[in-house]
Amino acid sequence: MTPALGRLLGPILLAAALSLSWFNVVSGQQQQQVGLQQVPQPLSAMIPQAQMLAPGQVALINGPPLPPQIVDPNQIVQNRPQQPKQPQQPQQPQQPVFPLLQPPPPGSDDELRHERIVGGRDTSYAEVPFIIHLRESQLFRVLGYNKCGGVLINHRWALTAAHCKPAFFSSLEVILGKHKTFEDAAPPEGSAMAAIVKVSSLAKSQASNEIDTGGQDWRRHHPVVQVLADTVIVHPNYESKTLENDLALIKLKKSVAYREDIQPICLPGVNEDFTGLDGYAVGWGLTDFDKRQLPDTLQIVKLPIMSNRKCQSMYKKSGHDKLITEMDMCAGYAKGGMDACEGDSGGPLIVRRPNDHRWTLAGIVSNGVKCGEPLLPGVYTRVSRFVPWILEQMRLHS
After folding, report:
1. 394 closest CA partner among 60, 36, 17, 44
2. Is 370 left (phi over 0), alpha (psi -120 to 50) or beta?
3. Do the bridges between strand 157-160 and strand 248-252 make them parallel or antiparallel, or are there none, so unpaired?
4. Residue 117: predicted pLDDT
5. What local confidence, expressed as pLDDT, does residue 22 receive?
6. 153 lies in a domain?
């Protein structure tokens, strides 16, 4: 390189580096901007009745949501974003009714022959309103790929797996209200490839909806929403080699407005145990691990939650020495056939509590051995063990 060329390129490269969309990656309470190792595209993730929360609230299942102005040690209240302009009238609690998540068709043998999530089914629009999709972008948000799932817990915060953290010099985009695998919001105005990406996304969306006129009409009135991540808070005890404590909080750059297909999920009670209940994993991940097949539509699969002792025994019988800790939980079938899979990482495992029938977040899709294999159930981060940490971090970073 000639000296003249070096003098010309130097300022350009410096400006490019400074203009990349950085956001904070935080571990515990010590905040720093760091470069993180990029992980390969990983693992997985109903709401019949969801309670409409006021902006800034987090709902815990051990009681009704508190008014936004009240701070309770078991519930963190964020700063309330500006309300949209509405007629001046007292706000009344609303109970929007969402479509019931229907279980897979009867007959376990038939269920096992379906190759979805793995072994699940297509969801309908707005059936899972708390699911989010994470997209990692580089080079001014021109280059990017679908990275993980996640789950919305209030207007400004979401949860995902720690191994879904962004790579060095990357930005993380949070996509809400998404249903089809290849429908994304247009990149922010002013980005270098906005027009090209917009046309490409439209073509993919039209292709996936070409026989779904109802879907096209829905999307016309419910556009996909994209928000950049502001801060990613990785659990301080996360171990990348073993995927222990595989949990991260995402603070959005701006609050999102709730609507029919964008709603938060309730957090569990501290140390609440869901063993023996049916869990449901949701995501856009592979439907066939070996064939590397992706679904056209968001998938959901029913997976019974088992005890850690049973899970550990199954892994031992299969010849794997994987350690299942008290911070983990397992869900799946001994005979396999149904599971979360690669690309579902960070998404939710949810349950409907038998005492109050409220849908709540039980786990975060973390890891497993292949997908849907016998004696190898999926491993999830046990969210109830992390509720105090989640609430404390939200308070510290609000």
Report:
1. 60
2. left
3. antiparallel
4. 73
5. 39
6. yes
Q: What is the pLDDT of residue 291?
A: 82
For the chain, the domain total comes to 1
Name which of 232, 230, 254 is nearest 160 in CA terms: 232
What's the pLDDT at 79?
29
First CA to last CA distance, the chain:
48
The 10 Å CB-count burial string (b at 16+, else e) for 44-78 is bbbbeebbebbbbbbbbbbeebbeeeeeeeebbbb
Among this protein's residues, is 44 annotated catalytic?
A: no
Position 59 in a domain:
no
Give the residues of the chain that fall short of pLDDT 70: 1-116, 139-144, 184-216
**218 is a domain residue:** yes
Length of the chain: 398
Query: For position 182, what pLDDT does the model report?
Result: 83
Q: Is the dihedral of CA 102, 105, 107, 111 positive or negative?
A: negative
> According to the model, what pLDDT value does residue 1 have?
57
Q: Which of 27, 155, 170, 246 is catalytic?
A: 246
What SS3 state is found at 145?
strand
Residue span of the structural domain in which 110 resides? 42-47+101-396
* Tokens matching residue 223: 């556009």
**pLDDT tens readout for residues 102-137:** 333 333 333 322 334 788 999 999 999 999 999 998
Catalytic residue among 114, 163, 179, 397: 163
Report d(CA 2, CA 120) in Å as an integer: 59
The active-site residue out of 345, 366, 384, 397 is 345
Q: What is the CATH number of the domain that holds 247?
A: 2.40.10.10
Known active-site residue 163: yes
Residue 287: partners with Cβ closer than 8 Å, 6 or more residues away: 115, 116, 117, 118, 293, 294, 295, 299, 341
**In the prediction, which pLDDT does 114 show?**
30
Q: What confidence score (pLDDT) does residue 3 get?
A: 55
Q: Which residue has the tokens 């005979």?
A: 335
**Does 288 participate in catalysis according to the annotation?**
no
**E-assigned strands of the chain?**
24-27, 30-32, 121-122, 131-138, 143-152, 157-160, 171-176, 225-234, 248-252, 278-283, 299-306, 328-331, 348-352, 359-367, 378-382
Query: 351-357: long-range contacts at Cβ-Cβ below 8 A with a sequence spacing of 24 or more?
Result: 351/274, 351/277, 351/278, 351/279, 351/280, 351/305, 352/46, 352/48, 352/277, 352/278, 353/61, 354/277, 356/61, 357/48, 357/49
Q: What is the pLDDT of residue 346?
A: 97
| Residue 1 maps to a domain | no
